[in-house]
C-alpha cells in the first residue's frame, strides 16, 4: 500500500462499517493516507465512495470501526470538531451573499477576528484568481468561478485535511481539465491532505498519489495510479481502468500451449494458463505483416493521434482492441494479424483475482 501507517498517517480508517437498515454500504473499510497526499476514492455509482467520505467528514455516523485524523480518534465527533474542510458537488453557495461573504461564512460562524478574516480572504482570493470578483454574487459567475469560490471557502478554513465530493461533475470537459490542474497545484502548494471522490478514471489517474478503487462497499484495490494500471488486482480493476479497458479473453488448452478460446492454431501462453483469463491492454497489441494471431476487424475508431481497432479473434466470440498511432484506413470486416505480448495479465475466472505470471 502506498500510504503511511500508524501515528504518521493523516487519515486512518480501521474496519469502518456503515449500515442502512439491511444494506451494508461500507464493509470493513481500512486504509491510511500520508500527510500531504491526494487520495482519490474511485468507483462506479453506488460503490460507497461518497458514503465513505461522509463518514470521514462526520456527516454520517459510522456503524462500526474507527476514524482517526492526524492520530486523533474522531469517530464520535461532529463535523466541526474534526479539523477538516469540505467541497461539495453542488458548490453550496448562498445566492444572496457576495463572493467575499460566501468565502468567509464559516469563519464568521466560528467568530474568527475581523483582521484575521480579511488576511485569509486576501490570501485565498489571490491564490484562486478571485480578487476582482469579491463583490459579485454567485448568479453573476461562471461554473468555473463558482467552483473557485467553493475552493476558496475550503482554503480559508486552513484545515490540514480537505474532502471533495465530485467537485467537477457540473463542468464541461475543457474546464474540468483546467480545474484538475488547479486543484492539484493548490493541494501541493498548501500541503493539504486531500480525499477526492470521483467516478471519472481520468481525474483519478491524473491527480492522485493514491487511488482507492471501490466496489460494492469494499476496497477492490488500493495503489498508486501507475500500479493500478500496470498490475490490476482483479478483472473488475482491469475493466474499470483504461480507455478502452483491458480486454479479457478465455484461454483453453491447445496442441502447443494455452490458446485463446476458438483460436487453436496460435498458442499465447504456457499450458498451465489454460482455464485462465488473459488480459491485454490495447497498446500491447499491434498489427503485423508477418506471423501473428489471425483476427477480423469489427470496428475502427479514429481519435486523431491514434486509431483503436476492435478485433474479433477465432470462433469463440473473443474480442480485443489494438491501439495504433496515426490514422489507419481499415474497413470493418477486413482480416488482420496481431502481434501479442508475453502473457503479463492472467486472472482466475471464478474469483476474478489476479494470478501469478507464468514462468
Protein topology:
Layout: E1 11-20, E2 23-33, E3 38-42, H1 49-57, E4 64-69, E5 72-73, E6 84-87, H2 99-109, H3 114-127, H4 143-156, E7 161-165, H5 173-190, E8 193-198, H6 201-207, E9 210-215, E10 218-223, H7 225-230, H8 235-240, E11 247-254, E12 257-260, E13 267-269, E14 277-280, E15 286-287, E16 293-302, E17 306-313, E18 318-325, E19 335-339, E20 345-347
Parallel strand pairs: 3-8, 3-9, 6-7, 7-8
Antiparallel strand pairs: 1-2, 1-4, 4-5, 9-10, 11-12, 11-14, 12-13, 14-20, 15-19, 16-17, 16-19, 17-18
Helix pairs in contact: 2-4, 3-4
Describe the protein.
The structure is a single chain. This protein is an alpha+beta fold and 359 residues long. It contains eight helices and 20 strands. The strands form four sheets. It has a six-stranded mixed beta sheet, with helices on both faces. Strands 13-12-11-14-20 form a five-stranded antiparallel beta sheet. Strands 15-19-16-17-18 form a five-stranded antiparallel beta sheet, with no helix packed on it. Helix 2 runs parallel beside helix 4 and helix 3 crosses helix 4. The radius of gyration is 24 Å and the shape is elongated.
Amino acid at each position: 500500500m502506498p500510504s503511511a501507517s500508524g501515528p504518521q498517517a493523516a487519515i486512518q480508517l480501521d474496519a469502518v462499517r456503515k449500515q442502512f437498515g439491511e444494506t451494508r454500504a461500507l464493509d470493513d473499510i481500512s486504509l491510511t493516507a500520508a500527510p500531504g497526499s491526494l487520495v482519490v476514492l474511485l468507483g462506479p455509482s453506488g460503490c460507497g465512495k461518497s458514503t465513505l467520505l461522509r463518514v470521514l467528514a462526520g456527516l454520517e455516523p459510522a456503524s462500526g470501526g474507527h476514524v482517526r485524523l492526524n492520530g486523533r480518534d474522531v469517530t464520535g465527533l461532529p463535523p466541526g470538531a474534526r479539523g477538516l474542510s469540505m467541497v461539495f458537488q453542488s458548490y453550496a453557495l448562498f445566492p444572496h451573499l457576495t463572493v467575499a461573504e460566501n468565502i468567509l461564512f464559516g469563519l464568521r460562524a466560528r467568530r474568527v477576528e475581523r483582521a484575521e478574516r480579511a488576511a485569509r480572504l486576501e490570501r485565498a482570493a489571490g491564490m484562486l484568481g478571485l480578487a476582482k470578483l469579491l463583490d459579485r454574487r454567485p448568479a453573476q459567475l461562471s461554473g468555473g468561478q463558482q467552483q473557485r469560490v467553493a475552493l476558496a471557502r475550503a482554503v480559508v478554513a486552513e484545515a490540514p485535511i480537505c474532502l471533495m465530493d465530485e467537485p467537477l461533475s457540473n463542468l464541461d470537459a475543457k474546464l474540468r481539465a483546467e480545474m484538475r490542474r488547479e486543484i492539484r497545484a493548490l493541494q501541493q502548494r498548501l500541503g493539504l491532505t486531500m480525499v477526492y471522490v470521483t467516478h471519472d478514471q481520468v481525474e483519478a489517474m491524473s491527480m492522485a498519489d493514491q487511488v482507492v478503487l471501490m466496489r460494492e462497499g469494499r476496497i477492490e484495490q488500493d495503489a498508486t495510479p501507475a500500479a493500478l494500471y500496470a498490475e490490476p488486482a482483479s478483472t473488475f480493476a482491469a475493466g474499470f481502468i483504461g480507455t478502452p479497458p483491458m480486454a479479457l479473453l478465455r484461454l483453453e488448452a491447445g496442441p502447443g500451449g494455452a490458446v485463446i478460446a476458438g483460436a487453436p492454431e496460435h498458442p499465447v501462453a504456457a499450458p498451465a494458463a489454460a482455464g485462465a483469463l488473459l488480459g491485454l491492454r490495447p497498446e500491447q497489441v499491434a498489427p503485423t505483416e508477418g506471423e501473428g494471431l489471425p483476427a477480423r476487424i469489427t470496428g475502427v475508431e479514429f481519435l486523431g493521434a491514434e486509431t483503436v481497432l476492435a478485433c474479433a479473434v477465432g470462433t469463440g466470440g473473443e474480442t480485443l482492441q489494438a491501439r495504433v498511432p496515426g490514422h489507419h484506413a481499415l474497413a470493418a470486416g477486413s482480416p488482420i494479424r496481431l502481434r501479442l505480448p508475453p502473457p503479463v495479465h492472467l486472472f482466475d475466472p471464478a474469483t476474478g483475482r489476479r494470478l501469478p505470471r507464468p514462468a
